[in-house]
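Per your request, structure below.
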């Protein structure tokens, strides 16, 4: 359990469905969906004129987290990607 003291900030939740509803997603499909969701969040920040924020992505396994981390670091080198598991 992680506990962080301090003030709370409002959180918006968006659901990004994968394109293939009837199959287990391939790692590439999941990584692409996460990248699209990050771009959606960036666009929402600009549209709502918010300052830059943080995005939290949940993955099922440590391997999924590591694979996503590697993919996103390569796809978005300017973005700080921090794995937490």
């Amino acid at each position: 359990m992680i506990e962080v003291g301090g003030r709370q900030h409002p959180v918006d939740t968006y659901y990004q469905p994968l394109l293939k509803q009837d199959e287990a997603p391939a790692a590439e499909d999941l990584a692409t969906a996460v990248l699209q969701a990050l771009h959606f969040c960036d666009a929402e920040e600009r549209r709502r004129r918010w300052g830059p924020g943080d995005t939290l992505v949940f993955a099922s396994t440590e391997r999924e987290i590591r694979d996503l981390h590697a993919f996103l670091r390569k796809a978005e080198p300017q973005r700080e990607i921090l794995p937490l598991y």
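The mean pLDDT is 83.

Regards,
D.
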